Automatic annotation (TrEMBL):
It comes from Mangrovimicrobium sediminis. Belongs to the adrenodoxin/putidaredoxin family. PROSITE patterns: 2FE2S_FER_2, ADX. Transmembrane segments: none annotated. Pfam families: Fer2 (PF00111). GO terms for molecular function: 2 iron, 2 sulfur cluster binding; electron transfer activity; metal ion binding. The keyword Metal-binding applies. Its cofactor is [2Fe-2S] cluster. One of its GO terms (biological process) is P450-containing electron transport chain. Residues 2-105 form the 2Fe-2S ferredoxin-type domain. Keywords: 2Fe-2S, Iron, Iron-sulfur, Metal-binding. This is 2Fe-2S iron-sulfur cluster binding domain-containing protein. The lineage of its organism: Bacteria, Pseudomonadati, Pseudomonadota, Gammaproteobacteria, Cellvibrionales. CDD domains: fer2. InterPro entries: 2Fe-2S_ferredoxin-like_sf, 2Fe-2S_ferredoxin-type, Adrenodoxin-like, Adrenodoxin_Fe-S_BS, Beta-grasp_dom_sf.
């Protein structure tokens, strides 16, 4: 299990334990984290699981695939540290990961 901290736009935090191999999107939805919608169910065909990865962990992630990069163009206010939660798999190396939730997914 890895610990992941989700931070809402208002600064409130929720720390959840996530089994290795689970996507950030699934971890958020399963633990009632507001702001991660996952409308496509993890098929990388929407951007409603858009999130910002804390800079301390961003470099530990594999590079986003082309399909994810293309889909991020539809996210609201994408940044350099934007990722789609459905495409980020939690590993033990990512324990302590900090994920910021955007103001909106629309």
């Amino acid at each position: 299990m890895a610990s992941v901290k989700f931070i809402q736009p208002d600064g409130s935090e929720k720390i959840v334990d996530v089994p290795e191999g689970t996507s950030l999107m699934t971890a958020a939805i399963d633990n009632g984290v507001e702001g991660i919608l996952g409308d496509c169910g993890g098929a990388c065909s929407c951007a409603t699981c858009h999130c910002y990865i804390d800079d301390a962990y961003f470099a530990k992630l594999p590079e986003a695939a082309d399909v994810e990069k293309s889909m991020l163009e539809f996210a609201v206010e994408p940044k350099e540290n934007s990722r789609l939660g459905c495409q980020v798999q939690v590993t033990e190396e990512l324990s302590g990961l900090v994920v910021h939730i955007p103001e909106s997914q629309y």
